């Protein structure tokens, strides 16, 4: 069944897809169709920053993928959340806004992504944001996305920043400014106490345009090819398989898991893998699904000496209703916090830029009886330790021609020995910071991993067994010019006309920090590349 013909068909209404739909449809002379497998973010939890825990395992807004842990743990599977809703993961994430380090983008250039070095991408970073802090040539003040430091600052988070400074780190007024290294409060995509996302900042203001059609609960099955050109997509909607034609281009924007999945089900990918999955090979492109990169993550906890040093009690029971009223009436209070509150960007030994991100949360979580994340009943705080530039590489593949079947995801956390060493250094820095005043005196004990896990060997084994995702998968359709590149620096799929991939999957390497900001930038710049041909 044919649905219609448009100038541009965008497969995926996530972080980059919403940016693309808004920017491309700003030209009234073109028509745009945006297809999203999920629905609208019409829940209060998608607006409340502290509501991210309610979205973490919610199948209404989340694909809830499972990833294989690797050869060391053959029976272990890891949960990998990804947004299944307009706005994608920007609708369900922890809201932290971190551009990464300037050298990250210079490395993209060195890996074959010409024109994606720091000086080249900076104008798009500036254009996309409305930063509430000190204006400068590096920060934008007129963009669609509101970026601000938290208005609510828990005293324990302030103690963490002070302790990091006492441990030898600089106090950094803006880690998205001239220097990333140091300790600071995290910046969030929050506007008036409510989540700002790709949907809220870009797509929602564009929904009234007559040349933009947004189709939700539309699961893209694959790209249609004719004589080496993408001419449309097949997708399931309301129990039917439909077709949408693209006069100019098809843009795949399904994210680091969804985009390779769409290409593979289209017959675009490594020939041997497609044949094993029973999918006809239409274009042998060996790099599709390779180079999956994610930030490995550990979440040690500390018990506090008194409940007031943690937010856990404040976010349970009757107190939640009081804070809820505060948030609804004035957009303030503890429900405005993201997943973490404060951060320390720390160098690894022998490196010239931060290789570790150690976040602080004045809260700890547990899974409740319904499977949702909820605050721990005990007063605890969390140190979230992340390796910023891991060397381990995973993959995304398919096992059957059924587009509804879940993909095979190899997560590859800490498979490279250098990543284990980096995580051990991160745990050492965590203990150094948590051992300083004024933080030390409000803590009673280290719960996880615990003081008995103290040698490099024990810490390394703890890290290998406990590493999880920081929910930042990228790189599985990377850009470049070599044989394993999937898209060229203009984000065009190599060897196929009229087809681009524009989302986090095109990153040649992961950025040194949360990936949402860089994904917004890719959407902004990608839209300009599409417009200019």
Task: Walk me through what this model shows.
- The protein is an alpha+beta fold and 533 residues long.
- It folds into 2 domains: 1-126 and 195-293 and 396-412 and 475-533, FAD/NAD(P)-binding domain (3-Layer(bba) Sandwich); 151-185 and 296-387 and 414-466, Cholesterol Oxidase, domain 2 (2-Layer Sandwich).
- It contains 12 helices and 27 strands.
- Strands 7, 16, 17, 18, 19, 22, 25 and 26 form an 8-stranded antiparallel beta sheet that branches. Strands 1, 2, 10, 11, 12, 13 and 27 form a 7-stranded mixed beta sheet that branches.
- A hairpin with a 2-residue loop joins strand 8 and strand 9 (194-195).
- The chain starts with a strand and ends with a helix.
What would the keywords be for this entry?
533 residues, alpha+beta, FAD/NAD(P)-binding domain, Cholesterol Oxidase, domain 2, 2 domains, 8-stranded antiparallel β-sheet, 7-stranded mixed β-sheet
Distance between the termini: 30 Å
Helix content: 10-25%
CATH architecture of the largest domain: 3-Layer(bba) Sandwich
Taking all residues together, what is the mean pLDDT?
94
Largest sheet: 8 strands, antiparallel
What do we call the CATH topology of the largest domain? Answer: FAD/NAD(P)-binding domain
The number of helical elements comes to 12
Give unreliable regions as ranges. Answer: none
CATH class categorisation of the largest domain: Alpha Beta
Structural class: alpha+beta
Query: What is the number of E strands?
Result: 27
- Strand content is 15-25%
Number of domains: 2
Radius of gyration: 22 Å
CATH superfamily of the largest domain: FAD/NAD(P)-binding domain
Shape verdict: globular
